[in-house]
Amino acid sequence: MSPLLTAPRAAALATAALATILPAAAWMTSATASPAPSDTAVAAAAPSLAPEKKCTLPGGLAELSGIAMSRRHPGVFYAVNDSGNTNQVFAVDCSTPTGRLAATLTVSGAANTDWEGLALGKDAAGGPAILVGDIGDNLSGRAEITVHAFPEPERLADATVTPVTHRFAYADGRHDAESLLADPVTGRMYVASKLIGATGRLYRAPLPPLPGQVNTLTAVGPAPVFATDGAYSPSGASYVLRSGGPLGANTASVYDTAGVKLADVALPAQSQGETVTYADCANLLVGSEDDTQIWRVPLPPDAAPGCGSTPTPTPTPTPTPTPTPGDLRLADPGPQACKFNQPCTIQLTTTGGKPPVRYAATGLPWGLTLDSASGRITGRPWGGGTVRITATATDSTGATAGAAFPLTLTWF
């Protein structure tokens, strides 16, 4: 959980205080995630072999917020700290009880606004790519979030990397999130929202995300209460979302690729469980802020489908094939002008695609709002000068189109 950087930091301090008064059970035996319509009835954490201590973290990872297992280097996982820390990804060799820092990768041009998620996806050539999720939003105040992607290095050594940065916004408003996942077969990215006392949602990104514009994240499935991290199985046949303390159970919820829950697996009790990745098809690695211990958690057989093979699973859930580029187009509205505190209307329009189409926009000045169903921007704007509006449209298949245009606000 990232610290708040402004006056609302008091909320973060309150959360930390709760950590000291909530009972620290040695093992959590029931899941808090309420079943969604696609869930099976899983009332209690599934029995499994006992977790074991895998390795300790090297120095410099006190605010651990995301880990992801390497695909090129056996025994190595990548790790990041959350907001207020450096723009660096750390390669940790966890093949011995004492973890060793194998490399530090500095992400050029990327500030650590709130790095909360980490995943291994695919680059444009189909090779493994490290995905850094700048997706944290404790106050639900970010108009858009970002994911920085760069190829996983073939050789582990300190280096500066130049990422491709993808921009995203949720189709249904703003959300806090700490879980970034990537399907190892398709490369499609997913983000799970984090809610206190209520189940979150899993959101799907378009494939591929379009460069230079805001891509829309669409809700497709359930997520547990207070989801703090997630990962896809290396087989691609399942994925996991974990809940962490102090406001969530230390439980890993495993789903198949249709979003059906397979099992809830108890995790070691940690004060601020923030991270999870797959060590291999049948075992998880989990960690926490302010705790140097990384644990290996075996999965029960019903929570490890596809082990021993590499199937080609259906993404979560089964999508309609994405239209070829050009099917959905968002018309460029061109330069627009509105007067201060006077009625203003801007209509967004699309061609092609499959209805219904949903609209989103960033950069709107105070006083203007967008109807996501009709694409109509209305209101009485406050402000002056020229702002740049970025609009996106998403059809029922998940295809996305975008356009950007200037809006000039005049006083008279």
Please give a structural write-up:
By secondary structure, the protein is mainly β. The chain has one helix and 31 strands. It has one helix spanning 9-21; strands at residues 45-46, 52-56, 64-69, 76-81, 88-93, 100-107, 115-122, 128-134, 145-151, 159-161, 164-170, 177-182, 189-193, 199-204, 214-225, 227-232, 238-243, 251-256, 261-266, 273-280, 283-288, 291-298, 328-330, 336-339, 344-347, 350-352, 358-362, 368-371, 376-379, 385-394, 400-410. Strands 7-8-9-11-15-14-13-12 form an eight-stranded mixed sheet, with no helix packed on it. Strands 1-19-18-17-16 form a five-stranded mixed sheet, with no helix packed on it. The radius of gyration is 22 Å and the shape is elongated.
- List the strand order in the largest sheet: 7-8-9-11-15-14-13-12
Q: How big is the Rg?
A: 22 Å
Sketch the major β-sheet: 8 strands, mixed
- Average per-residue pLDDT, rounded, comes to 84
Uncertain segments are 1-47, 309-326
By secondary-structure content and strand pairing, the structural class works out as mainly beta
Percent in strands: over 45%
User: What is the straight-line distance between the termini?
Assistant: 47 Å
Number of strands: 31
Number of continuous helical runs: 1
Shape: elongated
Can you give the helix content as a percent range?
A: under 10%
